[in-house]
Structures are given as C-alpha cells and as structure tokens.
C-alpha cells in the first residue's frame, strides 16, 4: 500500500516570509517543506511537497494523486473560500484530505470563515502556524498505521 503523502499549497504561499509576518510568521515555504520532509522521514512516509499559483495545475495534481498517493494534505490558501472545483477534485481523488491553514481563519475577515473544503476533509487544522503541517502529517501516519 502507498505511503506517499501529497502536500499541496495554493496561491501566494510562495510569498511566505516576505510579508505579513504578524499573520503568517517568518517561515518561508522552503522552511515548511523542510519541516514536512523531516516529519515524513520520522513517520516513514514518502513526501511530495508542491505549490502552485494556477488552479488548473492544482486540480491536475489532485487527479494524478488518486492512484499513487495515500492521502492529501492541502493548504488551498485563497481557493479555500472560492473553489468548488478544488473540492470536487478532492472528492474525486477518494483519498483522505487534511486541510491546513497557518492562520486562524475564524479570527479574521468574514469571507475567510467559509471553506469549500472543510466538509469533505477528515480533519482541519488552523491557527497552529506552520506546525499545523507537521500535525497533519502525524495524523496521516496514524490513519495509515490503523489501516495496516
Ligand atoms: O492561513 C492560511 O494558511 C491561509 O490559507 C493563507 C491564505 C489565505 O488566503 C487564507 O485565508 C488562509 C493566503 C496565503 C498568502 O500568503 C502570503 C504570505 C505572505 C505574503 C503574501 C501572501
């Protein structure tokens, strides 16, 4: 059985560490990638870590994961609040999905309170900063170990 976890990041997350440190901290996407790599190694998971600013590209990656991956960890960024297409692709993947947000979206503007992804996710993490990615991978480890 696959132990490959696809970690996906949506638009503008390549800008982390350059602006808005009070909301998102000082870590860069490269720092998050390293954190995920270290966590995946500890849990004996294979990691694929990607970011895109193009919605169709993200959807293609989700489709390709269906037959190759065991789970998807996704920070859809602004598409969280806008994209039925990403939700439909995640459902079509038939994989467990864990949604991650660095900030506590519920303590921010009203338009960030609704997520098209949360209702189809097995778990949602927000407000834990970049540690949310580590926690999401730990949960994937638990899910896969329980499956055997
Ligand atoms: O808190 C999160 O992880 C978000 O998914 C981040 C998204 C935001 O639209 C969501 O509501 C919550 C924004 C990511 C863009 O991050 C930037 C970081 C630095 C500079 C510019 C953008």
Tell me the series of helices and strands, N- to C-terminal.
EHHEHEHEEH
Shape: globular
Cα radius of gyration in angstroms:
14 Å
In helices, the fraction of residues equals 25-40%
Termini Cα gap = 9 Å
CATH class group: Alpha Beta
CATH fold descriptor: Rossmann fold
How many β-strand stretches? 5
Q: Which stretches are poorly predicted, pLDDT < 50 over at least 5 residues?
A: none
Named CATH architecture = 3-Layer(aba) Sandwich
CATH superfamily: Dehydroquinase, class II
* Overall residue-averaged pLDDT value: 97
Largest sheet: 5 strands, parallel
Short description:
By secondary structure, the protein is of the alpha/beta class. It has helices spanning 21-24, 29-43, 55-65, 84-93, 131-147, and strands at 4-9, 46-51, 71-75, 97-101, 123-126.
